[in-house]
Design brief:
Length: 337
């Protein structure tokens, strides 16, 4: 009886520890699920894009084969498409200069959409990079604390404006002003869309760059002042190079944000897939095209519908490349203090 009471006493003593271990395991499992959900979502998106893109390229190869034989696609529905014909359709997709998937035979060269995306992105960066960097330098090195507390949140409000508002702002306000200076500018152009996109991206670049500059240790500033350098010389020659890894990450984020922007270009860029590098021309980006096809006017399962996934996969690859470059720059120029 005495031995049984002793064992019961030991169990009672271990119970709090056991409960704590169980609670820790549950918390660890919940944290794991939260972290794994983002990875699983990414894998699901990539897998969906890959599988649907394969169907698109096989379907495209079937259309090209039907056009070469002078028969309808329905007559070749049961025919197996070879790997070589699929690779040929992929090559035509990458190098083609005409985007007209609803034509027969379909013309699905992605280059017009890529050029539209790159042109609007470059115009946006032409605005956002210098203005965002200058704003970051001012907020980090020149602005009094009270001014910084007001200006920085006000600047970050620009990132919270709905992009559809930016789109109509570009179409109805910016474009008429630009037409005063450039009378040949059409009502919708990549120039006005890119300029407004640049304004939208400024907070992303200025805020992250300002955080990177403020993280630079003060002894570097003091050392620069001790050599007789002015505040501006210290900011440009000491602080800016020291924070270059964080600033590079801000630029890459701005590029990714510009590439993925949809509503502004869908409203203000013109919606015409042109292979041109002239920002004054109308154009169409990859995201704007996806929005156009997703409106519901295109029948499910058709080649036109499947282009969504091929264009989405191209967009994903482009964004991934820029993020890899940003990661490399961050590691290459990271300063440890």
């Amino acid at each position: 009886m005495a031995i049984t009471s002793s064992k019961q006493s030991q169990v009672n003593k271990l119970s709090p520890k056991l409960l704590r271990d169980v609670r820790e395991k549950i918390i660890e499992f919940i944290l794991f699920i939260a972290a794994f959900s983002s990875v699983a979502t990414t894998v699901g998106i990539v897998g969906t894009l890959l599988l649907e893109s394969v169907k698109f390229f096989q379907n495209l190869a079937l259309h090209r084969l039907a056009a070469s034989q002078g028969v309808s696609v329905e007559e070749l529905t049961n025919q197996t498409v070879s790997i070589g014909e699929t690779l040929t359709s992929i090559w035509a997709f990458i190098t083609g200069t005409t985007w007209a998937p609803n034509f027969e035979p379909p013309q699905v060269g992605i280059l017009p959409l890529v050029s539209g995306t790159l042109v609007t992105t470059l115009v946006a960066l032409f605005v956002a990079v210098p203005l965002g960097t200058i704003a970051a330098i001012y907020l980090s090195e020149f602005a009094p604390p009270r001014v910084r507390e007001v200006v920085k949140p006000a600047l970050e409000l620009l990132a919270g404006v709905p992009t559809v508002v930016y789109g109509y702002f570009a179409l109805l306000f910016v474009t008429p002003i630009l037409q005063v200076v450039l009378p040949a500018l059409p009502a919708a152009s990549m120039l006005s869309a890119g300029l407004v996109m640049g304004v939208m991206i400024i907070p992303y670049i200025s805020s992250l760059s300002e955080d990177a500059m403020r993280s630079v240790p003060n002894y570097l500033r003091e050392g620069s002042y001790a050599t007789g350098a002015t505040r501006f010389q210290t900011a440009v020659n000491v602080i800016l190079p020291s924070a270059i890894s964080g600033i590079s990450a801000a630029y890459i984020l701005g590029i990714s944000r510009a590439i993925g922007e949809t509503m502004i270009v869908a409203i203000a860029a013109g919606g015409q897939p042109n292979l041109t590098l002239n920002p004054m021309d109308p154009g169409q980006t990859m995201t704007a095209y996806i929005v156009e096809v997703s409106k519901g006017d295109v029948a499910y399962g058709t080649l036109d519908y499947e282009t969504i996934f091929a264009v989405g996969l191209t967009l994903l690859i482009m964004t991934l490349i820029f993020n890899i470059i940003g990661h490399w720059l961050t590691k290459r120029y990271r300063e440890t203090y």
